[in-house]
Amino acid sequence: MTTLSLAELATITGGELHGDATAVVTMVAPMDSAQEGHVTFLSNPKYAKHLAECKATVVMVKEAQRELCSGNVLVVEDPYVAFAKVAQALDTTPSPAQSIAASAVIADDVTLGDNVSVGANAVIESGVTLGDNVVIGAGCFIGKNAKIGHNTKLWSNVSIYHEVSLGSDCLVQANTVIGSDGFGYANEKGEWIKIPQLGSVCIGNRVEIGSCTTIDRGALDDTVIEDNVILDNQIQIAHNVHIGYGTAMAGGTIVAGSTKIGKYCIIGGGTVINGHIEIADGVTITGMGMVMRAIEEKGMYSSGIPLQPNKEWRKTAARVHRIDDMNKRLKALEKQLENKQQD
């Protein structure tokens, strides 16, 4: 169990402490269930009315809410960001591996940095380079000539194909596949001819990738994920996609090939993005979006039909199927009206 004093919390968050600097906390808890020894935070002002009764050892709030608190208070610029930093400091998640397991299979010419850990039954092929403090979880596969930067961690059963480059301070969750073949085929008289995927995947620094996500290698050029990108679980990134700095993508999203997504975009869960298009910097796409064309300006975009009772949805679907006919009839009526006005 990790223990931190309130003085240490102030240093971690850059906040201003009002109260007992020697008091200690061991975990972060929600405001409504927090007890002594816990740290909590207020990020939504509508819960400010509960501050006076909060039993946490310390509450992290903005300056505007400080006087509403009855105990120790840590005033911070952004309580949610402060929560993230404190949660990191109190994190007790174990490492994916400790030292190098006897059952790991490591080629003779692999370059190992200092303090590398490799879990049971992992396979690391010829020409691989692992930076300092890299952790490879149990059952992982690292293909020929792949490169993994300092402090990067892979959880169990991650597969990194040949020639893939993964930067420093990255985190890859279990069962993710990076560098598998893109979906490239030519058709000759009804027969599919596979196109070898000759590019690779280049992933920057401080990238986090959720479990069961697939990132395909490029057909000719590389698939690229820039620094500070976060990808949720069960995402499909097709060949030659380029994702810009600081973009966040929620679970179940599918990005088709050769699409370029800008910097600081936020992609909601279940979104489908067409191939060979470009999305500008700073775009937000709400969940279940269907992006068929390029987006040239930053802003928030949505699509899809919200949930309806089945009876109403059937009516809506029937009308959608008739929309082309309705459009033709409307244009005919407009033409008739225009002719009458001219008479």
Number of helices: 4
CATH superfamily membership of the largest domain: Hexapeptide repeat proteins
On the 0 to 100 scale, the average pLDDT is 96
| Strand order across the largest sheet | 8-11-14-17-20-25-28-31-34-37
Q: Span between N and C termini?
A: 87 Å
**Number of structural units classed as domains:** 3
Radius of gyration: 26 Å
Uncertain spans: none
The structural class is: alpha/beta
How does the overall form come out from the CA principal axes? flat
Strand content: 25-35%
How does CATH name the architecture of the largest domain?
Answer: 3 Solenoid
Q: How would you sum up the major sheet?
A: 10 strands, parallel
Organism: Vibrio galatheae
Keywords: Acyltransferase, Lipid A biosynthesis, Lipid biosynthesis, Lipid metabolism, Repeat, Transferase
Subunit structure: Homotrimer.
Function: Catalyzes the N-acylation of UDP-3-O-acylglucosamine using 3-hydroxyacyl-ACP as the acyl donor. Is involved in the biosynthesis of lipid A, a phosphorylated glycolipid that anchors the lipopolysaccharide to the outer membrane of the cell.
